[in-house]
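Dear colleagues,

As part of the handover before I leave the project, I'm documenting each prediction I ran so the next person doesn't have to rerun anything. This entry is a single chain, and its sequence is reproduced below.
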Amino acid sequence: MSEKIKFAVVGCGHIGKRHAEMVSRNPECELVALIDVKDKSVLGIESFDVPFFASLDDFLNSGIEVDVVNIASPNGFHFEQAYKVIDSGKHVVVEKPMALNKQHAEKLIFQALHKHKQVFAVMQNRYSPPSAWVKEMVESGKLGEIYMVQLNCYWNRDDRYYKPESWHGKLELDGGTLFTQFSHFIDIMYWLFGDITNIQAKFADFNHEKLTDFEDSGFVSFDFVNGGMGSLNYSTSVWNQNLESSMTIIAENGAVKIGGQYMDKVEVCNVKDYVMPELAPTNPGNDYGAYKGSAANHHYIIENVVDVIKGRNSITTNALEGLKVVDIIERVYALKNSTKG
């Protein structure tokens, strides 16, 4: 298959534009359309010389040939739009979260199997060198038995982010803090250590009562099905700027901590009979002006899509893993009804 893989992007906000940019830069790809409900003039997409559509239906009915459609719209639309794409016989790349509930994610996977199409879930933090390094440390057994894992995600999301006209903060479209801000970190945890059980949680809404429909902070503790215990402490109430995202691992043969604003630095590595190698540098974080996002690794996702469709490689972020992240968040949030906040 030597011809270019044709892509369209749904949703032309910060992330959608990044998808379009990465597709445009890849010599094996061609961007064939952009789709957004907003008027073209307000989106800042003049640099992309491709047809523009106001709805996914309009695009799918246009007769324009496409192989893959990337969904970068508000969270609450991901399932419905991805389902339409699969149903029309195209592959789909879905930004996180894949859906806002497990049932929808399962439905999407079932339809993809039925139509023999691929669902690529976006989990770009897996591509950062510290993540790949920790994965190797865990899988090779160098750390031995895992005792404890602590995930700390302390970010700033204030009225510069939760604007009244935005979908951010609206329960139906956003889903909640864990879905929009911290699902990447839950993905990394699941990727490294597997599923969780015996979940306990408490939630609070400290300074977002007027900005969002849901909690801004939480303490979550659990056991790993594969052994060991873990906790996730998170907040978007931090003043002015992000504070940290970090993962501390206490294991039989040593302790490791990855940190930095986007888990892009190995801060501690004390492991028996082991010398830390020099890792490749992490890509810089996505800069959205007033607030910052996670490391800019979307080009790896586009490369993987091309490799999979051309039969050169296997999928790095499969839909079942996307489903598990949704499932874990849903089980954590199920405890909200039984706790205050």
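The domain at 5-121+299-315 is CATH 3.40.50.720 (Rossmann fold). The longest strand covers residues 146-154.

All the best with the project,
I.
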